[in-house]
Amino acid sequence: xxxxxxTWFHRFGxxxxxxxxxxRWLPWLTTLFVVTVIAGLYGGLVLAPADYQQGxxxxxxxxxxxxxxxxxxxxxxxxxxxxxxxxxxxxxxEIVLSCSAPIGASFTxxxxxxxxxxxxxxxxxxxxxxxxxxxxLILLFLYLGVxxxxxxxxxxxxxxxxVAILSIVGVVNIPxxxxxxxxxxxxxxxxxxxxxxxxxxxxxxLIPLLLMAxxxxxxxxxxxxxxxxxxxxxxxxxxxxxxxxxxx
Amino acid sequence: MKRLSLSQxxxxxxxxxxxxxxxxxxxxxxxxxxFVMVITLFPLAVGADPNLLSRIAAGIIWVAALLAxxxxxxxxxRSDFEDGTLEQxxxxxxxxxxxxxxxxxxxxxxxxLPLLLIxxxxxxxxxxxxxxxxxxxxxxxxxxxxxxxxxxxxxxxTIGLPKxxxxxxxxxxxxxxxxxxxxxxxxxxxxxxxxxxxxLSMMLAFLFLALSLSPVATAAALKMSMS
Amino acid sequence: xxxxxxxxxxxxAVFVWSSFGxxxxxxxxxxxxxxxxxxxxxxxxxxxEMIKSREEKQSHDASS
Lengths: 248, 227, 64
Description:
The complex is a heterotrimer.
Chain A: H1 2-13, H2 15-47, H3 61-88, H4 91-123, H5 131-152, H6 156-189, H7 203-235, H8 240-246
Chain B: H1 6-23, H2 25-46, H3 50-73, H4 78-83, H5 85-91, H6 96-126, H7 133-158, H8 164-191, H9 197-226
Helix pairs in contact in B: 1-6, 2-3, 2-6, 3-6, 3-7, 3-8, 6-7, 6-9, 7-8, 7-9, 8-9
Chain C: H1 3-8, H2 13-63
């Protein structure tokens, strides 16, 4: 099992293999994504009953919550890649890290915008300094920092090591920031009615949510593979396998 | 040639940086002036109502301290980077995190400590509750070293960039959030007559965490930047 | 439930559909932009390779 994992890791770690594997997997992943997302949307928009408090507006949960989950998950993936980069200097981890940042930033952006679109009917305004929205906003700044730093350094191998350090520093800080913001919020607003988490959620509401979360995960892999293929080609343009690939 | 022990190297570097800072007094005064001026701008912008000012005094002072500390960050490594001293430090036999800690300590003594000295004056001008003066100084004492330590990571990451300044603020300011929250809240809580033990212990925890982790990250970032 | 009721979303149509619409647009862009970039880059490399091989052939013909 371990040996299998190591060989798999090494094969995935080599850019030409990754390039080919990703190209082969993409159609399958896309099919899987379409099936899951249709099932999730049908379940969430049609089958799930309306919420007894929020009515139909709660259906925003099916894009808001998965986007928020992904925004945090992708940052953790980036920090993991950061460790791999600093320890093993693996090229593929550099590509995964740099390609993940824009995807993570757009999920964070989506979580923020859908959160405020949900807030308008619930709170009466588009923006309140709610703990989760505020820490999501700070997470967006962290993502923009990673993207900005990566873009600012011309040598992309050096840039990858820089953002590796930055994302590890960020991942250590995220729980502290989140905790501080939550504490700050409870101090300033009193116990807000947290309309996002319910003691119990109807199973007909929960299953579509999990399906949408799964769909977003698959989407992340698709978008990552797509971006990684472009990045690999660009980086390895002078290598022999690319020359062979483009040979007429 | 005699080899320096680790603690000797630490003190030597600290003294050298302080000496260099003392020779360049204009640079020393800039962050302080900036701090005072930002605070002067606030009454002009929000009005001179004493009640309002004393209510937001803690927040103003801390936001200004944050910005002033960020403004002075670049000087931690800039001149050493330009004249090649930094490369020598990287080549030295001593562990780099310790040397980094010496440089950051010197930076704090030069940029953080003056804020501590001038803060009571500004607090008085903003009409901060007189009970809160002690806590204000305590938060600055505990908080500004954390700002310098976190900031040093950002500076080390952007040192080689021609326009590192703008990106530095993007990297560093989000990481300053916890310090800002706890410092401002400690002062506010004390002004309303409650003890701020929880906030201050949190800030102490941040300080120890930053002291132990950030020199390592800064050292790694410096090695990356100089490679 | 009728179709118009479904699209009305109990009066929250603006919020619900703009959330879903925006998500769709952002996800589509994130998928499409790297897709296009990859395609363009591949085409560019192929073009360069073609030019190179043609030049090699010509110089080969000229020398022989």
